[in-house]
Design goal:
By secondary structure, the chain is of the alpha+beta class. The chain has one domain: Aminopeptidase (3-Layer(aba) Sandwich), CATH 3.40.630. It has 5 helices and 11 strands. The strands form 2 sheets. Strands 5-6-7-8-9-4-10-11 form an 8-stranded mixed sheet. A 3-stranded antiparallel sheet has the order 1-3-2. α5 links the parallel β8 and β9.
Length: about 220
């Protein structure tokens, strides 16, 4: 049974407070800002990429080159039927039977399109075809990667890797130091990709540190 600490009231959340909370290991889901607070388990670890020290691996450079032709459009959070349809296909392909597989339009809206901070919706297109959506929060010291979903029907694509690389480059372009990737669980195979973006800093005992032996 999971237990979380939730910040309230959420309507008073501003970018300065939110930035401090992100640095303290919190995460945003819709209008809720939370962090795991389980008595017997501490598997969820907050992680972030130091973008100024990051050096891409060969496979990541290939992914960047493979998808460099994608074009982007940045918007405020908003609903669009095309986005929701892509989200539904992504959940059905990648997370069959998961808690978000079959999300209603209202659940989708509450999860991704509600925010009290500076959030952006990024569209990624290939020859006019929508391939990926990424939700990010802008902070004084970095970007927080909230959620990304993409076209899972495209073979030989590595949209997820490309998206993180794009966010790292976006941080650099904005003069920001960190890309916050949320929680990492060492034993969870679907989270293993986060450990590929080194140097990855972990929040341990209230201090951000790079502990390579943990990966």
């Amino acid at each position: 049974m999971a237990c979380s600490e939730v910040v309230a009231p959420d309507d008073l959340m501003g970018v300065v407070i939110y930035d401090k909370l992100i640095q303290a290991g919190f995460r945003r889901s819709g209008q809720y800002v939370y962090r795991p607070q389980c008595e017997q388990c501490h598997a969820c670890v907050s992680v972030r990429v130091n973008v100024n020290s990051f050096v891409p691996k060969r496979s990541q450079r290939r992914s960047w080159k493979r998808h460099a032709h994608l074009t982007t459009k940045q918007h405020p959070l908003h609903f669009k039927a095309e986005h929701y349809a892509l989200y539904q296909r992504y959940q059905a392909r990648r997370h069959t039977g998961g808690v978000m597989d079959g999300d209603s339009r209202e659940q989708y809206h509450n999860f991704l399109l509600q925010s009290n901070v500076d959030s952006k919706l990024i569209e990624f297109y290939e020859a006019g075809q929508l391939r990926m959506i990424s939700i990010i929060d802008e902070l004084p010291d970095g970007l927080s990667s909230v959620y990304t979903f993409f076209d899972s029907d495209v073979t030989n694509a590595s949209y997820g890797t490309y998206n993180i690389l794009w966010q790292i480059q976006r941080c650099k372009a904005l003069g920001l130091n960190y890309l916050y990737l949320g929680y990492w669980i060492k034993a969870h195979p679907k989270m293993s990709y986060k450990a590929n973006f080194q140097p990855l800093e972990m929040l341990i005992n209230g201090q951000w540190q790079h502990e390579k032996n943990n990966f």
